[in-house]
Amino acid sequence: MNLDFKDYEAVRKQLFIKVSPVGKILHEQKDAPYEKRENLAITAHVLLKQNEDYVASMAVTNPMLESFGVTKEQLFHDASANAPSIFPARITDMDKVMTELCLDLILEEDKADMTKEEIQQILSDLGTIDMRDTKMIVVTNERKLDGAAAIFYPGVMEQIGKQMEGNYYILPSSIHETIVVPDDGTANCKELEEMVNEVNLKQVAPEERLANKVYHYDAENKIFELAESFEKRMRNQKLSRGDHNRPENRENKKHKGPSF
Questions:
Q1: Residues in Cβ contact with 82 at an 8 Å cutoff, skipping those fewer than 6 apart
Q2: Whole-structure pTM over 0.85, yes or no?
Q3: Fewer CB near the last or first residue (10 Å), C or N of the chain?
Q4: 219 and 98 fall within a common domain
Q5: Residue ranges of the chain whose pLDDT lies below 70
Q6: Hey, is 248 helix, strand or coil?
Q7: What is the pLDDT of residues 221-231, one digit of tens each?
């Protein structure tokens, strides 16, 4: 692609976002502008070329941003808004993802000789069909490459909140995807972080790890934050309500005179 980097309007149509650990950006991409989301960094990138086999892109640097003649805020607004058109979000129930993975394990020549009922039986035997006890959603993009950024696409967190019918936790599976589980009282931050840490150590390559922390989305107030911050906020609110409802506090408030 012959892209004129002096023409921001042309560049804008090729912008998209990635998400990485803040530490990686500070040490490896010091000259890249970024937006911080807790301990994560969103960076802007320019798509140069893509086909079925690979994607070629380059990170926007501060000198490039200066040459564009736009603010950092404008850059990230445009990159976030344009990303879904380049790499559309893919929001899928975990059971469907597991089914697809299992189907990939069956050789094509074997599948050609099997009926739908036989394939369904194999999947059932593998235990991938019935995962209804815990509703889990996988968020990535259609290429499943650097897809963790899709959770930060405009409107995606709100959309998932509607699917989950309330608050939810976000598990950073890798730079390629995140996993969403409902905040229904069956899990807490500590348990989920232990699970994320174990998966990172045993199954995710170091260069593809996103974080060892777990995040939370407050669907009512539209707040993305560390899960530990959310749980602390809820404890403080509960304590505050408890203090307000104590009989001695209600009595003091009732008899409090005018202040001058």
A1: 12, 13, 14, 15, 16
A2: no
A3: C
A4: yes
A5: 1, 94-134, 242-260
A6: helix
A7: 999 999 999 99
